Records
---
Amino acid sequence: MRKEDDRFIQVHEGEPLFDTRRKTGRVIAYRVFSASVFFCICCIWLYRVTVPTEIDENRTGLIWFGLYWVVVQSLRWNPVWRFTFTDRLSRRYGNDLPRLDVFVCTADPVIEPPLMVVNTVLSVAALDYPPEKLAVYLSDDGGSELTFYALAEAAEFAKTWVPFCKKFNVEPRSPAAYLSCKAKTSVLGSAAAEEVARLYKEMAERIETAARLGRIPDEARLKYVEGFSQWDPDATRRNHGTILQILIDGRKANTVTLVYLSREKRPEHHHHFKAGAMNALVRVSSKITCGRIILNVDCDMYSNNSKSARDALCILLDEKEGKEIAFVQFPQCFENLTRNDLYGSMMRVGADVEFKGLDGNGGPLYIGTGCFHRRDVICGRKYGEEEEEESEDTSETEMIKALASCNYEENSQWGKEMGVKYGCPVEDVITGLAIQCRGWKSAYLNPKKKAFVGVAPTNLHQMLVQQRRWSEGDFQILLSEYSPVWYAQGKIGFGLILGYCCFCLWAPSSVPVLIYSVFTSLCLFKGIPLFPKVWSWWFIPFGYVTVAVNAYSLAEFLWCGGTLRGWWNEQRMWLYRRTSSFLFGFTDTILKKLGVSESAFVITAKVAEEEAAERYEKEVMEFGVESPMFLLLGTLGMLHLFCFAAAVMRLVMTSREAGGDVHTMGMQFVITGLLVVINWPLYEGMLLRKDKGKMPRTVTVKAFVLALSACTCIALS
Ligand SMILES: O=c1ccn([C@@H]2O[C@H](COP(=O)(O)OP(=O)(O)O[C@H]3O[C@H](CO)[C@@H](O)[C@H](O)[C@H]3O)[C@@H](O)[C@H]2O)c(=O)[nH]1
Ligand SMILES: [Mn+2]
């Protein structure tokens, strides 16, 4: 029956809703390049195996880099580009689109300011979508009255904002972003626009005043008494009942539905962080609007392109190729980046190149935000199983609230085979992998006009903490029962397995990078050569790999729209992430496996204090806090500096043999020299700066002592 239906549509409306293209010439060129590098890597392996070196550790280091390079090739081997035809979608479906439920998650009213959260909510409420088909759910893991109050205010404002956006077709549809937009559209002058701007400013002021005073105005408490009365006087963020308030019920009024949910939290129950919030949202929404499609965004990721839902539907509603696609992922973009992206947050190449490569191999990872899912697939449907008819069953509020209680999930499959998975700091990636292992593919869309934009961490420590969580989570997946290597074998393609491995191997890759960099410096210091002589045949593959790989990486970065400085900054972050975040992520995972510690979810702050924000704008690296990760970075930085200085001194003093030193250790001079140059902002932060963002004195002193003792030990040994 089903098959015949399909054919019917094919015959009558043949055109696909999206197109998948490959750029053959470019791909072939890359493969040739890649083969040349691989050949040289083989030569290096041969050298490492046959020619003895004095230090054996460096051998493992270099063998690992070659292997990892092979794994990473999967990301560039087979890229695809997707193009959607929204006009065909409109022609075929008109306004007869499936219900769309948008889930926005927030967890802390201090580091995720309610005004930012409601801007995100308003932006998705104004998506270019039939309003009666659209519902926005805000999950508040902070259980905060302030957030509720802000949402209630936003619900009021939405009545003006949403029609305004549609009438004048404004972009972007986050009011804050729109009103601060430099290139104001002609609309702004109009009376309607001025009215909207005034209403927004008033609302923003009320919310910010309430936040500043920590007090909700009494008249608001009265106005939204039904919501506020759900807070017990002794409620805290970790201990409260379910709070559920439908602020706008669009089912009755032909408008967007807006719902506030704070699931029950009790100290004796694990709440599973964002994954737990998502599952509560899936269940609660199933009894209110039950959208067939679910869009998930973080609270800072506002919709920057109101067409994104239609783009995603072109894929999910496509009758042919789209049928096997479970979710459509958009890249994570940011609005608060500076020109040279000091902390490499943008992951430019990841978004422009690598995710397209993953897509060509079976689909991108689910990265937790900016992703459109099919509801029933999240709930466990396998590919090939019949889609169940949408059941429009609605229940009493009290019954719905029970779905978000702590006990509900006991002895159930939620968090395991149903919904978003528990127990992993990157719940998103493991959930996406599980979906793909059930036979589904996914698709990646990266339209010119960014679909969603959020807030990137604005200081080094936060960045490193975030990366630590990611590397830890990805490594846990590798070791888990859903390991891409064991479990996914035969369920997803080999290319995609390798693709997952690129990320899952982040944490373990820290060890060879650490060993490699430290040994290169120390051996330079001791005068032990690790690489072939500069004028020898063996040197050619080393030189070629080093130059070619880096030149390619730079060229790719520039193609993707980056700057030279930006690339250089990214190389620094490459090093820092590996020698701090990933190393800690690695040990965290091992400790967790041994049962010594439990993994946490440190939420990334979305605001910075004023002075720090200024330094961020000026691209001055922010240290400021005492952290073991900084101690490690500082010690390594000092170590490289001492080793390099000592080697240069030796070179100068023994000028007769100097030629010999350069000849035997040229490569080590270059590598250690580069390590010193790239660490410049670190030395500045440790030794030269006076502002609050400099490295704390204690860290500097400790790092200095540690590095000096290491050098002394080595010198005497
Ligand atoms: O207990 C929690 C913790 C976090 N969140 C929300 O989860 C989102 C992501 O948190 P954030 O601190 O911004 O983490 P990021 O590292 O920026 O997030 C990326 O990585 C996470 C996994 O590590 C994914 O969950 C996110 O979707 C993805 O954007 C935010 O909206 C939080 O409010 C909750 O709802 N409950
Ligand atoms: Mn975030």
---
Amino acid sequence: MPFITETKDLGRIFGSGSAAVHALQGIDLQVEKGKLLVLRGRSGSGKTTLLNLLGGLDRPTSGEVYFQGTEIGRLPNRNRTKIRRQGMGFIFQSFGLFPLMSAAENVEFGLRLSKVAAREWKTRINESLELVGLSKRAHHRPYEMSGGEQQRCAIARAVAHRPQLLLADEPTAELDSKTGRKISRVFRKLVEEEGMSIIMTTHDPSVMEVADIVYELEDGTIRQSMLA
Ligand SMILES: Nc1ncnc2c1ncn2[C@@H]1O[C@H](COP(=O)(O)OP(=O)(O)OP(=O)(O)O)[C@@H](O)[C@H]1O
């Protein structure tokens, strides 16, 4: 199966009647496995809405959205959650770590939600912290880590169950440009060395530099954009 993610004439309307917002319309997207795809566009152009639909966090108003050939837009919640927890990992702008848990415990929490057997947790935690260069911070809590380290920890948590698809919403927005560049390289490494597929939204040029494909959203429609 060639595509990790595919959409057909995907649309999302929020509200109804005169208050209806056409957040997305006619989105046809095909994402090959093992690529890093970036969605960019102005505030309100529909980036987060599209990412949420691709990740099965929201349902379309019209059209279809596929994950590895399975239409997920109309699946019952239980099935969609299962696919999401096993096949996808999520990263958000504000890291989303639990403040009272160490880096290792945060990663373990991610593993608990997926179907990974408990006997494998320790290995997976060590491997994923190593992958993002955070082994030395395993027992530190988020407030003892820099912003870049916290985002590395969030990445380790998102990839510990080895998802096929990683979705990230503005993952470098809260970081300075040097740290943002380092985090961009971590994403590139996941693609090159782990064969992961990544879709992320960003305004950050350093993320654009590591992308294979860039798409531009404008008023809820999409077009491929030239790489910078
Ligand atoms: N839950 C909602 N209810 C109503 N309107 C919404 C909702 N979510 C998004 N919208 C509207 O849909 C449009 C697209 O929003 P979206 O958050 O996808 O944009 P974005 O490109 O991610 O913006 P930003 O870069 O500011 O995060 C906007 O006009 C927004 O106001």
